[in-house]
Amino acid sequence: MSTSPKPLNVLFLCTHNSARSILAEALLNAMGAGRFKAYSAGSSPRENQKPNPLGLQVLQKAGIPTDGLHSKSWDVFATPDAPQMDLIITVCDDAAGEVCPIWPGHPATAHWGYPDPSQGNAPDAEKLEAFRKTMHQMRRRLDLLINLPASKLESALLQTTARDLARS
Prior knowledge:
The protein is of the alpha/beta class and 168 residues long. The chain contains 5 helices and 4 strands.
């Protein structure tokens, strides 16, 4: 009887954990077919922060489950009892420039920057379109990640592989 390999744990980070990191978490969990387990967090979520409703709307319209998505601090994943991450990806430039916690297990890291679809005073229809575009950009990059051969996902190569995908 063979056992399936342990999924690769991926943590997506953004400042508030309300838009881009939430989109990436939901997408990878839906696309990863059990090979990946995605999480998201923010460096400084606001008090009572919730996922952006426009982001949730875009995910739901695309058929991506949104149950269980919630905003949280990255401190949740820096504790000894937290799931050990294999890869941590910042998805906003602000979080990429911040001093991150020391992550248990010293996971690979990469930065995949996306503009903030919720930023500015544009009407909701324009922001909704920005969320849709961001989701599709993420989906293309995540599709490349999930279709990599297992050898490219081994811990020794994961850092280089994930950083190379930032150029895709």
